[in-house]
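quick q for whoever's on today - can somebody do inverse folding on this one?? i tried earlier but teh output was garbage lol. tokens:
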């Protein structure tokens, strides 16, 4: 598979994830109740759709934390890791730009920041990092285990999508749930202000969570 195709698939997949996930928050709101669950399922179903659409092309990482875990587990080269991350950030930025365009038409942004993540409800920076580490650890450990088992190949997309859904159910009231640096960077770059100032939390937290997931997988679970 050519690098151009793989990177293009990652860009497209991250665009869909960010537009549909953050878009559901922007247009519906993410308050507890229907909006909360709708946003969680929008992110999860985006993963399911993209897993079966582009999984055979790039593996459907559409998340720098996933690519980082695959790099640490020696399933991805350094060159591809760099290419994937660049493509993912571009896809998320294009999605955020499209959301900003809709908002410019007069559609209300229910989040006030294009679905950006924040730390205010998580008790500040420390709380934000901790919740992102924990949620990403759970998400990435699931991905590492499912994708390593050939018997799970046919349902891997569904399992991963549902896992992303349930970590969002917990994380949305706290940080808006990142577990994906690209999904955080795109909206934050256009929103500016506090989301941009705090975006490092949603880069560092998921990367730490991914690294911990690899450690647990390799030393406890991997056969």
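ok took a stab at it. sequence:
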């Amino acid at each position: 598979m050519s690098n151009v195709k793989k990177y293009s698939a990652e860009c497209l997949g991250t665009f869909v994830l960010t537009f549909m996930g953050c878009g559901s928050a922007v247009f519906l709101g993410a308050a507890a109740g229907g909006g909360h669950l709708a946003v969680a399922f929008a992110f999860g179903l985006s993963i399911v759709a993209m897993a079966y659409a582009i999984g055979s092309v790039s593996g459907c990482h559409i998340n720098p934390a996933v690519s980082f875990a695959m790099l640490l587990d020696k399933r991805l080269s350094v060159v591809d890791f760099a290419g994937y991350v660049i493509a993912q950030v571009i896809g998320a930025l294009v999605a955020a730009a499209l959301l900003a365009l809709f908002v410019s038409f007069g559609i209300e942004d229910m989040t006030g920041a294009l679905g950006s993540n924040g730390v205010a409800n998580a008790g500040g920076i420390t709380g934000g990092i901790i919740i992102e580490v924990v949620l990403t650890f759970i998400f990435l450990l699931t991905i590492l285990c499912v994708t390593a088992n050939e018997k799970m190949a046919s349902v891997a997309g569904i399992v991963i999508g549902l896992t992303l859904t349930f970590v969002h159910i917990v994380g949305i009231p706290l940080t808006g749930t990142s577990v994906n640096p690209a999904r955080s960077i795109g909206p934050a770059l256009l929103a500016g202000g506090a989301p941009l100032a705090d975006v490092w939390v949603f880069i560092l937290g998921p990367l730490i969570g991914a690294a911990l997931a690899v450690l647990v997988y390799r030393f406890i679970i991997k056969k």
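fwiw DSSP finds nine helices and no strands in the chain. also The chain has a mean pLDDT of 95. so keep that in mind when u check it
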